């Protein structure tokens, strides 16, 4: 069921043009940047977007400009673990890593315990308004998110086409707290 839904959602997102991705991403990022969750944060974990995800490039630059510490995920396929690593230099610290995603180079890994984060921006293929998500199938975030203190906000940046009525869940799935799309801010905790 999840595999079929993942494929359908990736196809839907794939129909977005580059212009639509850029304009919708700007709206989504503006909503996030004006939100107190973002304004008050200091240690922010963010995914580096690829293909047709909500573009996070400008958000990473904004984080640096505002003096916030930026952390990115590093996947370890051997253990199926996600490590949080500080990003200091967009030009020197990164290379194309696992799954074709930009990740820190080995010599640029600066780990941080998850409990030190005060905002986590979560990627995904699809979401429902209760905060359940479908990722890319590796389970990295489902294993990582429970390590965060409950007070740490988790926010998904998504296009409206990524929202569905209900995501099928399993015992290992872990919900996020908020979703921001080009049309709305969703407090998922109110919908559970």
TrEMBL record:
ATP binds at residues 2-6, 133-141. It comes from the Bacteria. Its EC number is 6.3.3.2. Pfam families: 5-FTHF_cyc-lig (PF01812). Its cofactor is Mg(2+). Belongs to the 5-formyltetrahydrofolate cyclo-ligase family. This is 5-formyltetrahydrofolate cyclo-ligase. It comes from Natronincola peptidivorans.
